[in-house]
From TrEMBL:
Molecular-function annotations in GO: UDP-N-acetylglucosamine 2-epimerase activity
Record-annotated UDP-N-acetylglucosamine 2-epimerase domain positions: 24-367
Name of the featured protein: UDP-N-acetylglucosamine 2-epimerase (non-hydrolyzing)
KW Isomerase (keyword) present: yes
UniProt family annotation: Belongs to the UDP-N-acetylglucosamine 2-epimerase family.
EC number of this enzyme: 5.1.3.14
Pfam families: Epimerase_2
Keywords: Isomerase
Domain of life from the UniProt record: Bacteria
Annotated source species: Clostridium thailandense
């Protein structure tokens, strides 16, 4: 084998953020021919990341449709990738995390008997419906994968309990920390003027995202009503809510918070804007998985608007607290961080358990070793 032929697949913004530094790392290696295939499960938000990291996909399935269903995404990705794989015949397919693109990309590779590498492997809540459909997406991907790139020791242990051979698991840290080395700037000026006008030095700015499928309906309503109470009870607080474009979320958020003073409702920002807002804010409230990893790297406490998390390491480290979607719990937890400086310091200074900025290099080394191209001694992340 002269070169390892790899196809890296992703389709959503969170996947793209975390795969971009790995794509850039693999591009530099003369022993690896890396091609990028995007499904565009999310179109606009995905394209923002591609532009930021200067990545031009070799294949673009462009599947996104308004109000798309999980079944629709699955069938389109499966059919589109079959054509790509038959044409390219890669040695390895890399997928990331837990999206429908991830699961379907793995299934398409399995059908062609192509080796599968799973980046961010081993995360579990142990409840197949929370988060939905992510928990089953990652479990099913794990069952098909040949190389498991676990971000933490806890994730590795999850995989081993499921019968995955330890020699096929590599503890790498999370590639999102690699990505932040490219994006965060202390003197950053936002493209969004409204963000530049916020007084970060005198206000306690809370960055919010909440859009997960299991929170649709009552969950989002409770979150929005809690945010309304928080800002009304604390005159020094401003909230920046990055509102998902899905009407199921957007309509509820604007109905409840649209006229609330000191609440800024913005469309999702590109990756660089998001990371720099996170760097300037006081704390983060989210139901996102990725922000639970990113915010602690910047010393920002995170209140997770979910009842369970597949990232227990952050809870154990003290950088993250689960508050669920009960209005009272959310308000109480937020007020404690806003008003209790000792509680805030304890969370903001906890050590981030998710990475050191070298995950992509560890993954590259594991791929080379797996295909007998090069033996690289490297220290696993711990």
């Amino acid at each position: 084998m002269d070169k390892i032929k790899v196809i890296t697949i992703f389709g959503t913004r969170p996947e793209a953020i975390k795969m971009a530094p790995l794509v850039k790392q693999l591009e530099k290696n003369p022993r690896i021919e890396n091609k990028v295939c995007v499904t565009a499960q999310h179109r606009q938000m995905l394209d923002q990341v591609l532009e930021l990291f200067n990545i031009s996909p070799d294949f673009d399935l462009n599947i996104m449709q308004s109000r798309q269903t999980l079944t629709g995404i699955t069938t389109k990705v499966l059919e589109g990738l079959e054509e790509v794989f038959l044409q390219e015949k890669p040695h390895l397919v890399l997928v990331h995390g837990d999206t429908t693109t991830t699961f379907t990309g793995s299934l398409a590779a399995f059908y062609q008997k192509i080796k599968i590498g799973h980046v961010e492997a081993g995360l579990r809540t142990f409840d197949k419906y929370f988060p939905f459909p992510e928990e089953m997406n990652r479990k099913l991907t794990g069952a098909m994968a040949d190389l498991h790139f676990a971000p933490t020791l806890g994730s590795k242990q999850n995989l081993m309990r499921e019968g995955i051979n330890e020699k096929d698991i590599f503890v790498t840290g999370n590639t999102v920390i690699d990505a932040m080395e490219f994006t965060v700037e202390d003197s950053y000026i936002f493209d969004n003027k409204e963000l530049n006008d916020i007084k970060y030095n005198t206000s306690k700015v809370i960055m919010v995202t909440a859009h997960r499928r299991e929170n649709w309906g009552e969950g989002i309503e409770n979150i929005c009503n809690a945010l309304k109470d928080i800002v009304e009870q604390n005159e020094d607080v401003e909230i920046v809510y990055l509102v998902h474009l899905n009407p199921v979320v957007k309509d509820v958020v604007y109905r409840i918070l649209g006229d609330t003073s000191r609440v800024h409702l913005l469309s999702p920002l590109d990756t660089k804007e998001t990371h720099n807002l996170m760097n300037r804010c006081y704390m983060v409230m989210t139901d996102s998985g990725g922000l639970q990893e990113e915010a602690p790297h910047l010393g920002k406490p995170v209140l997770v608007l979910r009842d369970v998390t597949e990232r227990p390491e952050a809870v154990e480290a003290g950088t993250v607290k689960l508050v669920g979607t009960d209005k009272g719990n959310i308000v109480d937890a937020a007020n404690k961080l806003i008003r209790d400086s000792k509680e805030y310091e304890k969370m903001s200074r906890a050590i981030n358990p998710y990475g050191d900025g070298k995950a992509s290099r560890r993954i590259e080394a594991a791929i080379l070793e797996y295909f007998d191209m090069e033996k690289i001694n490297y220290k696993e992340f711990s």
